[in-house]
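lol ok so funny story. i was supposed to be doing the assay writeup but got distracted and ended up predicting the structure for this chain instead. priorities right. anyway since i did it might as well share w the group, maybe its usefull for someone
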Amino acid sequence: MSSNPADEFLSTILFIDDEADKYNEKKNKIKNFDFNKFTEEFAKNGKLCTLYAPKRMEDVDICIRLAKNADITVLDWLIDFPLPDNIDPTADVESDIRGKFAIKFLYSVLEVCKNQLKLFLIYTNESVESVFNEAKQKLQENGIETENIKEEYLLKFHSVRIYFRKKDIDTKIDGKLSKGLLPVDKVPVFLMKEFENMNHGFLPEFALKCSTLIKENIFEILNQFSEDIDYAYLDHKSCIMDADSSLDILFNLYSNVLYELLVSQSNDFLLFEKRWMNFYIKKINDGCDEKKDIKRLLGIEPFSSTEEHKEKVDSACKKHPVVHNLLDDESKMFESFVKFARLSHLCVDFSINDNKPHILTLGTIIQDKSNDLFFLCIQQRCDSLRITDGERKFLFLPLFKKNINITSKKQNISIILGTDIAFEVKSKSFDMHTIIFSTDKHVVESKYINNEWIYLDKEQKQYRYCGRVNEMHSLRIVRKYAESLSRIGLDEFEWFRILGK
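and the output, tada:
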């Protein structure tokens, strides 16, 4: 695999220009652009570049479908196609009619690609600043609010980046290239570099590397899900009470296959990780007294003994020397810790599921709307499904709000929802809380009420959905609760009990 996951992930480039179909004619240089040279530069880097020349406004729908399947799209601002018969070609409205193609393309494609990793380049002979301002204004008029970085002529929208550059290679100021100018021969390097910058960092590149690995091994994955086992799945679906829940086993099986696939490439991932660890080591001041300790904590250099390891790790958990040597901002460090903690113990709520109800089950966190109390559902998953009598009693443990101290090790915090929302679980049996929910389905689902997902109990009392703890962490909390039910301390030799701590 490539040492650059972004480069390995990037595979397709789309170029939209009304002159693209004339690449084998002399006309291909009318706009100071050599299409042959453009595609060859990408081909040298193993990238597939497709040229498309729209001929009428209706072709924008074709361009949108093509852009959905391309990692990078380059678009000419003024697409020159025949004007309607009722339009005077010498009128001022001409450029406005032609410019509408790019505008319509942008606001349409942004809506369908906002959850995809996309890079767009508006490559034009016009004034970069005027095109940038016009695009920003038109997108805003169409209800799309972008983050604007005028110094770079860049618009950001979710996971999409739109750069604006001028392609007139003759425009210079005082012998230097004017601001926003991008020579043709620099386009491939610029695009590949900016695509890499969009995902800079160890964890973003790790995720890209995983995605590429899945694509490269898709046949191996499909072999595990062959048509031969369709019949077994059909039998499984026919035997369970709630046939709609049959997909759960497939989701779990697929995640297990992906896990084993990634583990099989662990040596490659270790080399990739080591490259990033060395990168961060270089960012730490060479004169730092703790540099050797940091190398050991990151696994670059081994510890001389287990005692040394325990001593250094205990100290690191309090002082965080690795992060302090890379970040001066305490708030950024805290935010980083909270995000990673959330990722490690909470289920991910994808934005694409904003309109999907949440099933009440093990690990679900709810908030009583009437008194601002929080609870964690500890109902067994099997007892959260297949409800046949119209109602079901659910078990909850109360959650007690706590503040996080980043330099303290033991704080009895089990759940973190945000930088200012963390909880300790009250795990005494007398703290147990029960709520009866009614349902006309086999499960209890949340309902969307006043921009919130709400569970309604039997008495129509409202409980807000706050998130869900993953299964492994939920079981850890339940196990801790079960341990508290024992009579240790009352019927056990105290000296012997303390020895076991």
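The chain has a mean pLDDT of 82. Residues 5-200 form a domain with the Rossmann fold fold (CATH 3.40.50.2300).
back to the writeup now i swear
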